[in-house]
């Protein structure tokens, strides 16, 4: 197998972010506020290059109908909403009012609140309540890792042909090779499950903590 390993130093990461739609003042403020308010949890936020990629992918597939599972303080939802047309819709799922109250403020500030509907509650139940026809253009999964197989199975049939599902943290800091806890094992099992799913074309990218992209056939 040909390998092209590239250790991403902090300096190189800064360079990479700066040369691909870097965070604007609103995204920057959201990162700073998340760190100040929730120092223990702030690392859950998607990386800036992932935010840029999510906006890019949303536009690439001409998404009008999108879903996000795992919203936290709103960085990924902000990125997806910004890629949608003015009459597009992003439905977000999270269990936390506390985290998502921050997200709501930043959606307002960015002028995208009217494109976003937030549903609070366990995502598995909320996803089951969505229309069952294949109407979704884009979905992003980034909630509790144990739920990934359920979220995937609820979302794949709802994706239109050519629709895109992005799944975060699929490398678990490299621990998918030697799982240490329940979440690592859940992701390793999820990766095998997604790989065997004939309803999608799949690619796993070494972006941040690993991002799988699935395209509905
Ligand atoms: C990794 S964070 C999401 C980060 C977010 N995508 C961002 O860019 O800031 C995971 C989120 O999933 C939420 N969550 C955990 N379990 C959940 C569940 N069963 N259903 C819905 N959301 C859940 C947490 O409250 C948390 O906000």
Automatic annotation (TrEMBL):
Signal peptide: none annotated. One of its GO terms (molecular function) is caffeoyl-CoA O-methyltransferase activity. It holds the Pfam family Methyltransf_3. Transmembrane segments: none annotated. GO terms for biological process: methylation. Keywords: Methyltransferase, S-adenosyl-L-methionine, Transferase. The keyword Glycoprotein does not apply. It comes from the Bacteria. Its EC number is 2.1.1.104. InterPro entries: Cation-dep_OMT (IPR050362), SAM-dependent_MTases_sf (IPR029063), SAM_O-MeTrfase (IPR002935). PANTHER family: CAFFEOYL-COA O-METHYLTRANSFERASE 3-RELATED, O-METHYLTRANSFERASE-RELATED. This is Caffeoyl-CoA O-methyltransferase. It comes from Micromonospora polyrhachis.
């Amino acid at each position: 197998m040909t390998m092209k390993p590239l250790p991403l130093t902090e300096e190189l990461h800064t360079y990479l972010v700066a040369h691909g739609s870097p965070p604007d003042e609103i995204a920057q403020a959201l990162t700073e506020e998340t760190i100040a308010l929730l120092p223990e949890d702030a690392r859950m936020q998607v990386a800036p290059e992932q935010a840029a990629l999510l906006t890019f992918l949303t536009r690439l597939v001409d998404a009008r109908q999108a879903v996000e599972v795992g919203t936290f303080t709103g960085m990924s939802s902000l990125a997806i909403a910004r890629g949608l047309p003015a009459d597009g819709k992003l439905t977000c799922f999270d269990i936390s009012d506390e985290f998502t109250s921050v997200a709501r403020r930043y959606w307002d500030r960015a002028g995208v609140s009217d494109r976003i509907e937030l549903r609070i509650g366990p995502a598995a139940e909320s996803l089951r309540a969505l229309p069952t026809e294949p109407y979704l253009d884009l979905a992003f999964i980034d909630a509790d890792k144990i739920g990934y197989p359920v979220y995937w199975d609820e979302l794949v049939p709802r994706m239109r042909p050519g629709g895109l599902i992005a799944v975060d943290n699929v490398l678990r800091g490299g621990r998918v090779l030697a799982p240490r806890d329940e979440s690592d094992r859940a992701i390793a099992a999820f990766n095998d499950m997604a790989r065997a799913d004939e309803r999608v074309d799949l690619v796993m990218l070494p972006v941040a903590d690993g991002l799988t992209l699935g395209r509905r056939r």
